[in-house]
C-alpha cells in the first residue's frame, strides 16, 4: 500500500478535481481528505424532495467514486442513496449530470458501491489525480 504525500501532485490534483466539481455545482461547502484512503464531501444547497428533513451531500472516495447521500436525522452520519458508478474519477460534467438526475424524478446511478479499486493500490490512480494538479484552480 502506498502513502500519499499531502503536498504532492496527487494530493494537489485531488483538491483541484474536487474544486472543479464544486465550482460546476456552485456548492457552498466542501471538504477533502488526501491521505489514503482519500475522500471528499460536498454540501448541496437543496434538499431532496424524497428526504425534505435531511441535508443532501455528495461524497467521493477513492474506492467507489461519487455517491449521493443524506445526513441522518441526528446529523452524525451520512447515508449513501446512490453511486454514480461509471468511474472513480468521472469528469465534473458527468458528476453535474448525476446531481441533476438526482433532483429529477428518477433514481440515477446504482444502489450498491461499485468498488472500483483498493485504496493505496499501485494502479496508476495517483497519476490520474496528479494530472488535475496542472489545471487552473476550479477548472478541470
Spell out the key features of this protein.
globular, 21% strand, alpha+beta, 140 residues, 5-stranded antiparallel sheet
Strand order of the largest sheet: 1-2-3-4-5
Radius of gyration, taken over Cα atoms and rounded to an integer in Å: 15 Å
Secondary-structure element order, as H and E? HEEEEEHH
User: Helix content range of the residues, please?
Assistant: 25-40%
Question: What is the number of helical segments per DSSP (H or I, 4+ residues)?
Answer: 3
The number of strands is 5
Query: How much beta, percentage-wise?
Result: 15-25%
**Low-confidence parts, pLDDT < 50 over ≥5 residues?**
none
Shape field: globular
Can you give the mean pLDDT?
88
Structural class: alpha+beta
Biggest sheet details: 5 strands, antiparallel
Task: Give a written overview of the molecule.
By secondary structure, the chain is of the alpha+beta class. The protein is 26% helix and 21% strand. The chain contains three helices and five strands; from the N terminus they run H-E-E-E-E-E-H-H. It has a five-stranded antiparallel β-sheet, covered by helices on one side. A hairpin with a 5-residue loop joins strand 1 and strand 2 (39-43). Helix 1 crosses helix 3 (125-132). The longest helix has 17 residues, at 9-25. The chain starts with 8 loop residues before the first helix and ends in an 8-residue tail after the last helix. The model has no long low-confidence stretch (mean pLDDT 88).
Amino acid at each position: 500500500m502506498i502513502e500519499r504525500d499531502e503536498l504532492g501532485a496527487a494530493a494537489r490534483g485531488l483538491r483541484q478535481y474536487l474544486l472543479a466539481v464544486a465550482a460546476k455545482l456552485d456548492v457552498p461547502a466542501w471538504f477533502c481528505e488526501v491521505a489514503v484512503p482519500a475522500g471528499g464531501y460536498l454540501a448541496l444547497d437543496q434538499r431532496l424532495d424524497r428526504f425534505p428533513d435531511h441535508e443532501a451531500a455528495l461524497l467521493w472516495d477513492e474506492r467507489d467514486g461519487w455517491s449521493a447521500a443524506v445526513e441522518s436525522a441526528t446529523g452524525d452520519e451520512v447515508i449513501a442513496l446512490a453511486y454514480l458508478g461509471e468511474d472513480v474519477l468521472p469528469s465534473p460534467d458527468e458528476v453535474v449530470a448525476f446531481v441533476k438526475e438526482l433532483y429529477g424524478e428518477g433514481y440515477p446511478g446504482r444502489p450498491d458501491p461499485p468498488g472500483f479499486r483498493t485504496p493505496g493500490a499501485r494502479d496508476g490512480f495517483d497519476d490520474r489525480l496528479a494530472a488535475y494538479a496542472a489545471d487552473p484552480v476550479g477548472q478541470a
